[in-house]
Design goal:
Strand order of the largest sheet: 3-2-1-4-5-10-9-6-7-8
Low-confidence stretches: 42-50
Radius of gyration: 19 Å
CATH superfamily of the largest domain: HUPs
CATH architecture of the largest domain: 3-Layer(aba) Sandwich
Structural class: alpha/beta
Distance between the termini: 31 Å
Helix content: 25-40%
Amino acid sequence: MPLTLIVFAGFYAAARHAVRYADTLAQAVGGKLVLLHVKRASLFDPYEVLSEDLRQAELGTQLDTAAALYRLADELPSHPTVEIALDLLPIVAQDQADQHQPALFVLPRPEPYFTDAAGLARDCAELLRAGHHPLLVVPAHGPANQLPRRILIAADAEAFALARHAKPLHQLLALPEATLFLAHVSDGVRDDADCGAALHAVQVSGLLKGLASPELRGYECDNYEQGVLNAVQDTEADLLVVFARQRSYLGELFHHSVTAQLLARSPVPVLVVPTAAEVVPAH
């Protein structure tokens, strides 16, 4: 089944860049692209306490936005569809994912001086809670019309299973001429066995099924986040893959996690792969 990319669209630089990047990926995998415009992020529906007439009135004010998005869609080679939502509610995200499955949500990361790292992480956590769908966070720089050629997977030695909706991501890792790397970061204690276990955990998950084994590299750093960023630089990666375990995004500490810091600081797009609740036993 083709992979559908749902990109959060807008008219500022970060959003326009994310749209172009998502369009490039959609063309490469023969997938579909959806431009989703959300007016605001909300954890609850404000119209539960307000009238439906007010909702319809506010939707009416979005007509010009919709028209501009349709013009943008007409200019993109993937010929995306357009969706408009007032609030980024979990039910809205789930409805979009159900309608356009299998779905990958693509989020723009604003420029650093506008970035609210906690807010970005909160939005990501809400999307993950809604349906355990993978996320791709795109920084507002870099080539938008160039496919990833060097993909870095950051993994530890803990076994995991992929969330059901993460399995179609295999299409992105199988991009033509892409080279895969796997980085294991230790806190200063060199352990080749842990590096091997990290590679084994990723292979057993099925994410790399049918693909060549990635080049395995170990890094020493007492700060895991910085170690991963060092690995991005060392491998000259143009896409970073990280795993979000359910205990991270179902709890309230997601915005304090390493994943959240990587979303805010990574110089390249970050693909967040959700894992399932169950753990794959080591062999």
